[in-house]
Amino acid sequence: MKKISDIGLNKIKEFEGLRLKPYFCQGHRLTIGYGHTGADVNPGDTITEYWAEHLLKADLFEIEKQVAKLGDWNQPQFDALVSFAYNMGFYKLKTSTLLKTILEGGSMRAIKKEFKRWVYAGGKVQPGLVKRREWEARRFFEPDEMEPMKVRDWSDFHKTE
After folding, report:
1. Which of 26, 23, 28, 27 is nearest to 47 (CA)?
2. Is 36 in contact with 18 (CB distance < 8 Å)?
3. Which phi and psi (to 5°) does residue 151 adopt?
4. What is the DSSP letter of 49?
5. CB atoms within 10 A of CB 60
6. Which of 56, 58, 62, 79 could lock 34 by a disulfide, CB 3.0 to 4.6 Å apart?
7. What residues form DSSP beta bridges with 24?
């Protein structure tokens, strides 16, 4: 199964920030760790950084499975879409004009424009979301760092002459 890269994981951690006690996010949901929400988050909870990372990876596991089903993504594309879906929710990605534009082969300009539409919370532009969407839009179009490794013929790797 396709996984988010260390680059993508570290950016999500940076964007989400680490909170070891619950808080209400901009979407008015009780949140803890690196943006974890759910019925298991209760007022008064305290977690460790280790547990916050565990929750993040468990949440990402589900999103990775869902994003992988939407297309044959290279690593940068996958990172960008997983970051978006983690932040906005998979349903919003799945039903978005962003995904529609990507799947229809939209131009780089059109796709970047769609990413940058998702910067509002509470009816206001949020600087953190602007920064995140700019990174996602850039990441989506970066070259795949692993592509040269995938296309190389490794059959001669252990041969000696």
Report:
1. 23
2. no
3. -95, -10
4. H
5. 21
6. 56
7. 30
Q: Which amino acid is at 16?
A: E
pLDDT tens by residue, 18-70 = 999 999 988 789 999 999 999 999 999 999 999 999 999 999 999 999 999 99
Kindly report the average pLDDT of the chain as a whole number. Answer: 92
At 21, is the secondary structure helix, strand, or coil?
strand
Tokens 């280790």 belong to which residue? 50
Q: For residue 49, how far is the Cα from the chain centroid?
A: 20
Q: Classify residue 155 by its DSSP letter.
A: G
Give the model's confidence band at 91: pLDDT under 50 very low, under 70 low, under 90 confident, else very high.
Answer: very high
- HEC states along 91-120? HHHHCCHHHHHHHCCCCHHHHHHHHCCCCE
Model pTM score: 0.89
- Using CA atoms, how far residue 152 sits from 78, 146, 160, in Å, is 22, 10, 18
Contact 64, 82 (CB under 8 A): yes
What is the C-alpha to C-alpha distance for residues 158 and 161, in angstroms, rounded to an integer? 10
- Tell me the residue ranges of DSSP E strands in 25-106: 30-33, 36-37
Segment 108-150, tens digit of pLDDT? 999 999 999 999 988 999 999 999 999 999 999 999 977 655 5
Task: Note the pLDDT of residue 2.
Answer: 94
